[in-house]
Design brief:
single chain, about 80% helix, mainly alpha, 15 helices
């Protein structure tokens, strides 16, 4: 065995030893705190098994010439941390149940990676025991039932279990929705351009139209491309999450079922019904994967935006909003055109703000007045700046 390969193997064996020792101390502390005799004995048995696994790994480490491993965890393992979490002992057992399933999956991967026959033999023994541990914990949880939690407590407990499940996996980046107010963006940006150029040129319609139309085209293209990339990124993130959930189901289906069942229970579904439903989903692995992805991203493939549709709607809505402040300058010039453009634009600001109330909880008049005030400030500021720039350029 080459030195780099042996070093990698040794690191994995030491990590396995640390895991088993932490399990030993965790189960020992939990058993000491347990007053019910059968549960106390079950947890004590799990602790003894974890200690035996640690001894197996320590023996293999020494046989390969390694030093005696040193335990770096706390005297009670994870027991103190788990006991302080929302949900109490029963959710602590659920967390350990997930940890056991993760260990089974990790050891399963090591079977393919280790090129050492003696280590593989230990792995086979440990995996068989860990499966028994998983079944034991599951029995303890089913026998005791779920604790009564408030919805907020249940959400915290689920987040904790999901964090345990995601340990070792990179978090996906946050996805950007396509709820973009194109009209508002086009109206606001081009109204500012029109006001500024009007102030600089005393309302010269020729210059205002050139600047306004150029800004309209640029804003529409920018919004369209941004909407396209946002929708495309959202779809790519969903596909990556879908692939990750498929890998999870393939490598550790028991863990995936447990997390999905708990998600449904938190929504109010009785435990028995939740598990029956998950069992039904699991008959079709693709259905199980889709359900897990939906839980993670709160969306489905059907709910994703279509990149081209988002691009076209974003570009057209921006262009429509941008056209409003420009329209008066097609027919008028000078200060009358500036005044009409300001009135039309402020009315449009109010209309857009009022329309926003359809997707928010604010009243239409409050949202409309806010947008109008913002537009008025924007117009005045850019108009004054434009006058100043016009005098500088003329001077």
């Amino acid at each position: 065995m080459g030195l780099p390969k042996k070093t990698k193997l040794m690191d994995a064996l030491v990590a396995n030893w640390q895991t088993e020792m932490e399990g030993y101390f965790t189960y020992t502390a939990l058993s000491d705190a347990e007053t019910e005799a059968s549960r106390h004995n079950a947890l004590r048995g799990l602790a003894a098994a974890e200690k035996h696994h640690a001894e197996l790994w320590a023996g293999r480490i020494k046989a390969l010439g390694g030093a005696e491993p040193v335990y770096r965890g706390g005297p009670n393992g994870q027991a103190d941390e788990l006991g302080a979490r929302v949900g109490g002992p029963e959710f602590a057992l659920r967390r350990l149940e997930i940890d056991e399933s993760r260990d089974i999956a990790r050891y399963g991967k090591q079977l393919k990676e280790f090129g050492d026959a003696e280590s593989v033999a230990i792995l086979n023994e440990v995996i068989a025991d860990e499966r028994e541990h998983y079944a034991t914990l599951r029995g303890l949880i089913r026998g005791q039932g779920m604790p009564d939690l408030t919805p907020d407590e249940a959400r915290v407990a689920l987040d904790d279990l999901l964090n345990a499940r995601r340990k070792g996996h990179p978090e996906t980046a946050s996805w950007v929705g396509d709820a973009i107010y194109g009209i508002n963006d086009g109206l606001g940006s081009i109204f500012g351009i029109v006001s500024g150029v009007s102030g600089a040129t005393l309302g010269n319609s020729h210059f205002v139209l050139i600047a306004g139309l150029a800004g309209m085209i640029a804003s529409a293209l920018s919004m369209g491309s941004g909407a396209y990339l946002a929708a495309k990124s959202e779809r790519e993130i969903y596909e990556a999450e879908f692939a990750r959930e498929r890998e999870t189901v393939e490598s550790n289906e028991a863990e995936a079922r447990e997390v999905l069942s708990l998600s449904y229970q938190i929504r109010g579904l009785p435990e028995e019904d939740a598990e029956r439903f998950v069992e039904h989903l699991a008959k079709d692995k693709e259905q199980l994967v889709r359900a897990l992805a939906r839980e993670r991203l709160n969306t489905t493939e059907e709910g994703l935006s279509k990149p081209m549709v988002s691009a076209v709607s974003g570009a057209l809505s921006t262009a429509l909003g941008a056209l409003i402040p420009i329209l008066p300058f097609f027919f008028m010039a000078g200060y009358p055109a500036v005044i009409v453009a300001a009135i039309v634009s402020l009315v449009a600001h109010f209309a857009v703000g009022a329309a926003k109330s359809l997707v928010t909880i604010r009243s239409w008049w409050s949202s409309g007045l806010e947008m109008t005030a913002i537009g008025a400030v924007e117009g005045v500021v850019t108009y004054v700046i434009g006058i100043g720039l016009g005098r500088i350029g003329g001077g």
